[in-house]
Amino acid sequence: MPCGVFSQRQNKQNQVSAAASAKPLVDKVVLGIDPGTTIMGFGVIRITGRQMTLLEMGVIRLEKLDDHHLKLQRIFQETLAIAERHHPDEFAIEAPFFGKNVQSMLKLGRAQGVAIAAALTRDLPIFEYSPKKIKMSITGNGNASKEQVAAMLQQLLKIKELPKYLDATDGLAAAVCHYFQNSGAGGKAEKKFGSWEAFLSNNPGRKLK
Q1: Model-level pTM?
Q2: Which of 90, 94, 128, 170 is catalytic?
Q3: Can you tell me the distance from the alpha carbon of 62 to that of 143, in angstroms, rounded to the nearest whole number?
Q4: Total Cβ atoms within 10 A of residue 158
Q5: Of the listed 78, 128, 167, 170, which one is catalytic?
Q6: Among 9, 36, 155, 209, fewest CB within 10 Å belongs to which?
Q7: Structural domain boundaries in the chain
Q8: 167 catalytically annotated
Q9: 28-206 CATH, one of 1.10.3570.10, 3.40.50.970, 2.60.40.420, 3.30.420.10
């Protein structure tokens, strides 16, 4: 092969490689939810490569609604509204913890299911994490307090001032946990649902009759 032809081909390959490396990293937006029937916390982050940026966090206060079904309606509507604002690619949610109060567990499970249903209407893949998994992922301690989780998130995302209600940072923690679990550093989600049917099949006790 003539030397000139080889040089031209090599230069072309170098140009292609340079162009590929110059392409911006694909962005991903993750919505995290901490379900609740009194206060629902949420956080939204953007992931670019290995960088996280906080887009929004806050709470939906439900204590003024006396009817449980109206609370579920509000959760559904607000989850959709957050999704409309940020167009997330993935949805991470904290799984209900198992407590002694059966009625409270039932209500919390309904709140989680409604938030998941709202996300699925936007065709978002669902990732579910236990409270212990989220705390372990953020702080390294599965028994960490809300305050410890919030303090670590404040450092990670350079949050100037923590919110009044730490349910917001709990929702944010679900999103950050999802990032850590899928960045190659900590395994995979404990549960993943790609459709409402998949969620119901894994949660037979939540099927509507």
Answers
A1: 0.76
A2: 94
A3: 27
A4: 10
A5: 167
A6: 209
A7: 28-206
A8: yes
A9: 3.30.420.10
